[in-house]
Amino acid sequence: MTDSRLTSSMARLLAVLEPHAVVTDLYSERGSEVYDAMTRGDDSEVREILRIGRRTEGRILELACGSGRLTVALGRLGRETVALDSSPRMLELLEGRAQRAGAKVLPVLGDMSAFDVDGSFGLIVLAATSITLLPPPRRRTMLEAVRAHLAPDGVFLVSVHSTGAYTGGAETRLVPLNADPVEVVILDEQVDSTAGHRDVSVLHLRRQAGVRTTEVFASRVNLLDETQLRAELSTAGLRVRDAFPVRLADGSQSLSMLECVR
Ligand SMILES: C[S@@+](CC[C@H](N)C(=O)[O-])C[C@H]1O[C@@H](n2cnc3c(N)ncnc32)[C@H](O)[C@@H]1O
Question: Is the ipTM of this complex over 0.90?
Answer without folding.
Answer: yes
